[in-house]
Write a structure and sequence with these properties.
Elements lengths: L6 H15 L5 H6 L12 H18 L27 H12 L13 H20 L7 E4 L2 H12 L30 H18 L8 E9 L18 E3 L5 E5 L9 E2 L5 E9 L2 E10 L5 E6 L10 E4 L2 E4 L20 E6 L7 E10 L4 E2 L13 E5 L5 E6 L3 E9 L7 E6 L2 E6 L3 E3 L9 E11 L2 E9 L5 E8 L5 H11 L3 E10 L2 E6 L4 E2 L6 E8 L20 E7 L10 E10 L8 H7 L8 H17 L5 H18 L2 H13 L2 H4 E4 L11 H12 L6 H8 L7 H10 L3 H12 L3 H5 L12 H20 L5 H4 L3 E4 L1 H6 L13 E4 L12 H6 L8 H12 L24 H9 L5 H5 L2 H4 L21 E2 L5 E2 L2 H9 L3 H17 L5 H11 L9 H9 L2 H4 L2
Parallel strand pairs: 2-5
Antiparallel strand pairs: 1-29, 2-4, 2-28, 3-8, 6-7, 8-11, 9-10, 10-28, 11-27, 12-26, 12-28, 13-20, 14-22, 15-21, 16-20, 16-22, 17-18, 17-21, 19-20, 23-24, 23-25, 23-27, 30-31, 32-33
Helix pairs in contact: 3-5, 4-5, 7-12, 10-11, 10-12, 11-12, 14-15, 17-19, 28-29, 28-30
Length: 1015
């Protein structure tokens, strides 16, 4: 029995560890996460006195009437200002000084300051701002909680688990800069500490096993192929509505015993069942029925097949099962079915493990396929390069192909019937598709002598070719004419492109529902480029996938069905060869050794001959050192060992006592927080372990690896920053930085929540949005990894896209990369750079219309780092009167003329108007009026978004670089920056101007700055 650890005990242990490791930081800092609160010492008392005696009376006399808490004209308030100029107020005071010096304030129709009064105010502002800039901000170290994603990654790396155990944690707060890792937004509640405790217990239960109890392993394989099963199940299998079950003879299920270097128990699936109801189509069976076959435990079916646009969605052939791309279904409930893509193959089964890792192994190949022609394609007149197969007497025949090449097959039938599906086997290939018959009047008398259809293109070898044709109205089938196409023919080129394409194999796991399936992908799709069968492995953790929660021994025939989905993934709709699936094998829980690696990595530091106390000490020291990302101290080790001793004394269970002790490690501040301990308020260098953690959580979003910790231990890390930075950017874990930083910096989450009008923008589907959301991340990744100039962030002659994204932009056919993002030249003015990423623009709309205010504010905040002030309360929204004759500009003008609106919109609207070329789906408007002209805040006039790109890439590149580095630094240190830190970035960043502000170089500048290296 584990020791019962209460909430009070948790809090006590938590605070004890806080005292052990973070003595210089109080609980209030820990709870709020505010590692550098802005509590500057007062400005020189002389300046305070001058403000109170000279400046404040002038503000009261000339400014308060229009800019107090109640009026706030243009959203500006000054009655709250004091002589204590805080960092965040410096830009505001400088703006006041400029307005007063330029005599723009007070307005011309208001009483004016005298020249002496203007000089007095300006002089005080200069002195107060100088004093504010000169003051030192106490450092006092820092402490910030790991974000949910950092905690998830760290836990997985530490324990070696694939499971995501963090679903129960609340989402992180978002700072004004848009980041989730900012210390002042990362509150910590007792309830959250308890959640960490529960996660730690669950994780350790998954990792630590009873070494003497052999595991139970489920392993089976489904083989596919026409008539592959010599003893098919005699029952008519049922699986509910819209399920196209494979013929019982076309698949086999075999339970396997995997070869393992350890003892285990094979899991045997249940094969005998008593059910009280089932389904045949949509009819419910209300009677007890007995079943005795593994084929009632494991089914093979394809769902969502009706109405496939070209050819059969799936086809069993001797070599396996052929699958066409799974076309995503529309997502509006009520306007389409909910059965998932059309079509998708699934293994439906009753039993899978409750937990643990699993492996799905698929044997698959690219089928050497024929290209079915579109309905209405012209047939080729017979000529000297034609070979005719007469099938009027027999559907089976043999012809001789005179020379290899690409051939078009035209099918001729007698008139008088209705078109149907032609099933054709030629050589070792099979294809099935609808004939689109057209009448042929050979005599010119108005009567059809024959009907014909252009059916397919195929590459044929020379020599004999066996043909077998099947048609619904076989008596009408007359002849098949193969016409060799010239090598320069457009159809030959089209077929060459087709046969060089490769399908992508996707594997899914989930559950069956009456109205469809709930499936989650197992890893990323894999390209299938070989015509020979190859092995493709997909791995995951059972707990991360949907599972049917039904009561035990439910007697409904279809209750609790699990599903393993296998798909030929859909990309851009272009024809591609079918995916040939030969077999699918499942193994789970999957272990390469026993005890598993998760267990061994915890106990690897102990000798089985050690005494329990010595074992515990070795495990705790090793584990805590990894968890704390630095050597564990003697005091910490002793505290944890006391927990182990208490548990062991109470239970005598050494294994459970280890779990109890390690649970405390995983719920301690030293694990849950990034701590930079400081001895004084003065700036200090990070110690080597703090630097290792700061680097890894910045660039990898997880704990430092062995090399970083080794360099920290030997003291060489500070001198190897350049080498380590290069290594870390090349490492796959850098993807974890990119996905978090770019998504938060550019507010890509807005695309997740915008409700797009699917009738107005049918191409912006749920699946397309998924890929568009990745585009900015992949684009920035490409710029950084190739150290390209920053100007390409806003204006580039290429995009980074996969087939889905390229097709959305009208560049279909420009890449054969499948789902992989690659750089593509675009040759257009409406593409290139993040400003024209469709996913960003769609997220900055209302789903029906473009929104220049949202887009302009986004540019001001994210791109040029000149954020507008927050709007005052109760500002009316822009009216959505769709029938109004007013143009968008006129509506905005009317909105700006309302009290409190003009000042904010001066820094928003000019940046937003150029985006009016782009609709709510993020594409260039094809119709309707748009006026993208804009006069920018500095007076520059641009005619459209391309002009704005030019302006940014040339005249404002310093500000673009500053904006990027400011956001990067804010994310890197996990807090808002002080005024001096911001200005330091601005000035030091200009050193990179001569080398075009290279992306990699800007990251290096931040990492090597005092802002990053000091605490």
């Amino acid at each position: 029995m584990p020791v019962k650890i209460t909430r009070t005990c948790i809090a006590s242990l938590f605070l004890s560890f806080l005292a052990l490791g973070v003595i210089s930081l109080g609980w209030s800092d820990l709870a709020s996460g505010d590692d550098n609160p802005e509590n500057p010492s007062a400005v020189d008392s002389h300046e305070e006195v001058l403000f109170r005696d000279q400046v404040q009376p002038l503000l009261q006399k000339y400014c308060y009437r229009c800019h107090d808490a109640e009026t706030m004209k243009s959203g500006v308030r000054v009655d709250h200002l004091t002589g204590g100029v805080e960092d965040r107020q410096i830009p505001f005071w400088l703006a006041i000084r400029k307005l007063i010096d330029d005599q723009e304030m007070p307005p011309a129709d208001e009483p004016q300051l005298s020249d002496a009064e203007r000089r007095s105010v300006s002089k005080w502002i200069d002195a107060a701002v100088s004093a504010a800039r000169a003051r030192d901000i106490a450092k006092n170290g820092s402490i910030r909680r790991l974000t949910v994603s950092q905690y998830r990654n760290t836990l997985k790396d530490l324990l070696g688990l694939q499971e995501d155990l963090t679903d129960s944690l609340p989402p992180d707060g978002i700072s004004k800069e848009g980041f989730t890792n900012q210390s002042h937004t990362m509150v910590l509640s007792p309830l959250q500490v308890e959640t960490y405790f529960e996660i730690a217990q669950k994780g350790l239960d998954l990792c630590i096993v009873d070494e003497n109890r052999p595991p139970v392993i489920q392993n089976f394989r489904m083989d596919l192929g026409a008539a592959i099963n010599p003893s098919p199940c005699p029952d008519n299998l049922v699986l509910g509505a819209n399920s196209d079950l494979l013929n019982n003879a076309d698949f086999t299920v075999t339970e396997l015993t995997p070869a393992k270097p350890f003892v285990f128990e094979p899991f045997a699936m249940r094969t005998t069942f008593d059910f009280i109801e089932g389904y045949v189509g949509n009819d419910t069976i209300r009677e007890w029925r007995k079943f005795d076959s593994i084929y009632h435990a494991v089914f093979a079916c394809v769902r969502g097949t009706p109405g496939y646009p070209k050819g059969r969605a799936h086809q069993a052939v001797p070599e396996g099962l052929l699958l066409r791309p799974a076309i995503p279904s529309p997502e509006i409930f009520g306007q389409s079915n909910t059965y998932g893509p059309m079509a998708n193959f699934k293994i439906s089964l009753r039993e899978l493990p409750d937990s643990g890792n699993f492996r799905v192994t698929v044997r698959a190949a690219r089928y050497r396929d024929a290209l079915l022609l579109d309905a209405g394609s012209p047939f080729e007149p017979a000529g000297k390069n034609s070979v005719t197969a007469d099938v009027s007497m027999s559907p089976e025949t043999t012809i001789v192909i005179p020379e290899p090449g690409v051939y078009q097959l035209d099918v001729y039938c007698a008139p008088g019937g209705s078109a149907g599906e032609l099933q054709l086997q030629f050589g070792d290939r099979q294809v099935a598709g609808q004939l689109d018959e057209r009448k042929i009047d050979l005599k010119g008398d108005g009567n059809a002598d024959e009907v014909a259809a252009a059916f397919l293109l195929a590459r044929l070898p020379g020599g004999e070719l066996k043909i077998n044709a099947r048609y619904r109205d076989l008596a009408r089938l007359k002849r098949l004419v193969w016409n060799r196409l010239d090598d320069q023919d457009e159809r030959t080129r089209r077929f060459s492109q087709f046969e060089n394409r490769s399908p992508s194999l996707g594997v899914y796991l989930g559950l069956r529902r009456d109205c469809g399936s709930t499936l989650t992908s197992v890893g990323a799709p894999q390209r299938v480029q070989s015509d020979e069968l190859q092995t493709y492995v997909f791995e995951g953790a059972i707990n991360d996938f949907p599972s049917p929660d039904v009561e035990k021994d439910n007697v409904n025939y279809l209750a609790g069905i699990r599903e393993i989905g296998v798909r030929s993934e859909y990309t851009d709709g272009r024809d591609m060869p079918r995916l040939l699936v030969k077999s699918i094998e499942f193994e789970g829980p999957y272990f390469e050794s026993w005890p598993p690696a998760t267990h061994q990595r915890i106990f690897s530091s102990v000798n089985s001959l050690d005494q329990p106390m010595d074992q515990a000490r070795g495990v705790i020291r090793s584990f805590a050192t990894k968890a704390f990302r630095r050597p564990v101290t003697q005091a910490e080790e002793a505290a944890i060992l006391n927990v182990w001793q208490s548990s062991f004394d109470a239970t005598g269970d050494a294994r459970q006592s280890i779990k109890d002790a390690l649970t405390i490690v995983l719920t301690s501040p030293q694990f849950l927080f990034l701590i930079e301990n400081s001895a004084s308020p003065e700036p200090e260098d990070l110690d080597a372990y703090e630097l290792a953690s700061k680097l890894s959580y910045f660039l990898w979003n997880t704990a430092p690896d062995a090399e970083l910790l080794e360099r920290a231990a030997d003291g060489t890390l500070p001198g190897l920053l350049d080498d380590q930075l290069d290594r870390m950017i090349r490492d796959p874990r850098f993807e974890q930085f990119l996905s978090e930083f770019v998504s938060q910096w550019l507010s890509l989450d807005k695309l997740d929540v915008v409700a797009v009008d699917s009738q107005q923008f049918p191409r912006l589907t749920r699946d397309v949005k998924t890929h568009l959301r990745q585009e900015p991340v992949r684009f920035v990744a490409y710029l950084i990894e190739n150290n390209l100039p920053l100007r390409q962030l806003v204006k580039s002659d290429f995009i980074v896209a996969n087939e889905v994204v390229a097709s959305y932009y009208g560049l279909g056919g420009s890449t054969e990369s499948g789902f992989q993002f690659v750089p593509l030249p675009h040759g257009r003015t409406d593409l290139g750079g993040v400003l024209t990423n469709a996913g960003i623009l769609a997220g900055l709309s209302n789903g029906r219309e473009s929104n220049p205010i949202k887009r302009g504010a986004w540019v001001a905040r994210k791109i040029i780092s000149e954020p507008p002030a927050d709007p005052p309360p109760n500002v009316p929204q822009l009216p959505e009167d769709e029938g109004s004759p007013l143009t968008l500009r006129e509506k905005l003008e009317r909105h700006r003329n309302q009290q409190g609106c003009a000042k904010c919109h001066e820094g928003i609207d000019p940046w937003g108007f150029p985006f009016e070329q782009f609709d709510a789906a993020g594409l260039l408007k094809s119709s309707g009026k748009s006026d993208p002209r804009s006069t920018l805040p500095d007076g520059t006039e641009v005619s459209d978004l391309n002009g704005l790109k030019d302006y940014f890439a040339t005249g404002r590149i310093d500000q673009i670089a500053f904006g990027f580095m400011r956001h990067l630094a804010c994310y890197a240190v996990g807090r808002s920056l002080t005024y001096n830190e911001t200005e330091s970035i601005r000035e030091h960043g200009k050193k990179l101007r001569s080398n075009d502000y290279r992306m990699h170089d800007m990251i290096r500048l931040i990492v090597k700055s005092d802002l990053f290296l000091k605490k």
